[in-house]
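ok trying this again, last paste got cut off
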Amino acid sequence: MSLVLGILQFLIVGFCTYSEFKRKSAGVFLWATLFAMFSITHLLTCITGDPEYSSTTIDTASNFVILFSLFYLFGRFIFTKGSYYQRDTLKNLSVDYSCNKLLYSELIVFIVFITVTIFKMVLHIVQVGSLSNISWIALRRVSESLSYINIGQLLKLLFFLSSGIGLLLLLKKRWLLFSIVIITLAANVIISRNRVEVLPALVIPISYFMIKTKKLDLVKMVFYLLLAMFSIYVVYALRAFRHFGSFEDFFQNGSISDLNKKVIHHLISGDGELGLRRAFYLFIQSKNNFNNFGLGHTYLRMLLVFLPTKWTLGIKPPDFALSMGAAIGLAQGGSMHPTLFGDVYANFGIYGIFFGLFWAGLVSIFELLLARLDKPLNKILLFTLSGVVFAIMARGAVYNGYFILSYGALALFLNQWLRRCIT
């Protein structure tokens, strides 16, 4: 039975990914990430078993994912019906960009992206003293010492929001400027050591090929599979790189060969992103018997996203990722992101299956918001931002991703409103 359920969840999550790809929806990044991080490895667990978790636990995880995904598909079927939705879909991103001349506003966004990213890198270097001192531990200590509201939050939001300019440059075939964007993204993630910040560099080319693909045949499916495998390798390589410590430590004690060996070891052992699902298993086996579980804290925080926690008089709950970190035994302040499935289960238990409808609604709402933006540039910025954030949320960092997406969308609509007021 475990194998049958494992195969069924694998096929349904794969179908969710395919259906979002056919719609040319940013929701594809939500489901492609879940497919890579959960469905494939969970199927392997269903085949081989897991010495720490019972077959009942594994089967419950399969059933949860199957029902959640079916509710999602049902929700998308309902929410995308009607003339109010169909009159302007995401297909308008595939307009003809044969004219590669950059508009003034597009050039401004390019300059903002380069300026913000360079300033962000310089700020990191200044905070730790020098480039040679840059390490994940050093930057984390700096982050923990900062105030609740700091310039880093604004820079991070502007970074993700403006990074979508890379997709527009690719569509317009402005190869030199596009190369500058990709090189800047690479330099930033090498310095920040934050794997999430590599996502724009992965989302942009995938979005380009998805927009340009008219029919998904076997050759294209193999191509996307290879692209997904490359993306996973990049994420693991960045994780392994930051384990070496500073740049000086890496050049003195490591090599590219050592880095590659660490990546292969983590992939084979299921450590890192591909092992996050195991926290989901723990929550199931323990019946959510942990502090703050089953109270919907992630979703209460999402509801109050525009209000700082200290202004809500205790109504806005604490970061649920910290509660999940404590549940799996991490040190105080350690956060846990057990994939979107694990986060939903930790918030609502088995009743979380109905939140497939919520996520179908969320993806549909941001598609409608995109359609209401009046400039191709703004549409592309929101599309890219949505793709990046949906991948973050699929990993399980639901509130963090929602925070970025909400404020990013708000900034784009404020820009549109101000422009209309002026003109």
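PB: full thing came through this time. Residues 86-90 have pLDDT under 50 and may be disordered.
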